[in-house]
């Protein structure tokens, strides 16, 4: 059942966070649905600008529609991740998306406000929610790269002005997380003081945490043992910080890198052990349950595990 992002946030606010996962192919979609059903968790499917161009946007939409039929018990929203203005309009006009993210955080404040406001007006006219971003995370997100020296945390006072002027429905905040697999090398983590101050300034407004993968050391070690060359010692977000952040109004937690690490580990280990195999389905059959197991672990950390039936009741009551 595809529902609005707004409904998921209404149910989650202050209690737990909804996991938002990027997909690019059928194997990821199958593992994502299986894992969330096993965890009895609602979730958000994210499609990035890059994923829409990887095959064709209609391909991913077709896969999601098929999964909705194959797994009728699933409750989820479909979200555009890190969209520019034109991509947002394309997704809004498609009628398929529950919400879109306009990322103009790299622009000056006034321009970010103007762009976001235009997208909000277009989206709200069709009942679609808008996520915007204020502040800049370090790291790499597809074609967006921000050096750590240029990253800066979201200013709580600016956040209040920004939401009031744009009318956005949720706000992605820079609160100490980072995009990509190389992340932190020190003891950095979520700045809970900043999250708490933003919540005080914006009570009831759903907050979003990007760059929230944990980059498990064991995954990196296994990838490298199978021929990879990932930087060791990189650290992501401690998954034990997910739920405390959710209590402060973080309703959506983006997790992409960790899923890519699972994919890379499975394929590297499989073809290292079976160099004679050339059937892509052989590794895919391993990846799907491995990814599902990973999704269950993240649902439990987010506090969304076990919430599926309650969310479904809320959704049906609003029909």
From TrEMBL:
Note accompanying the cofactor annotation: Binds 2 Zn(2+) ions per subunit. One is catalytic and the other provides a structural contribution.
Positions annotated as active site in the UniProt record: 81
The UniProt record lists the keyword Zinc: yes
Biological-process GO terms, alphabetical: carbohydrate metabolic process
Cofactor dependency: Zn(2+)
Sorted UniProt keywords: Metal-binding, Zinc
Keyword Zinc: yes
Gene Ontology molecular function, alphabetical: aldehyde-lyase activity; zinc ion binding
Positions that bind Zn(2+) 2: 103, 133
CDD domains named in the record: TBP_aldolase_IIB
Ranges annotated as spanning the membrane: none
Residues that, per the record, bind dihydroxyacetone phosphate: 180, 211-213, 254-257
Taxonomy, superkingdom: Bacteria
InterPro entries attached to this UniProt entry: Aldolase_TIM (IPR013785), Class_II_FBP_aldolase (IPR050246), FBA_II (IPR000771)
Binding residues annotated for Zn(2+) 1, in chain numbering: 82, 179, 210
PANTHER family the UniProt entry points to: D-TAGATOSE-1,6-BISPHOSPHATE ALDOLASE, D-TAGATOSE-1,6-BISPHOSPHATE ALDOLASE SUBUNIT GATY-RELATED
Name listed for the protein in its UniProt record: Fructose-1,6-bisphosphate aldolase, class II
Annotated organism of origin: Capsulimonas corticalis
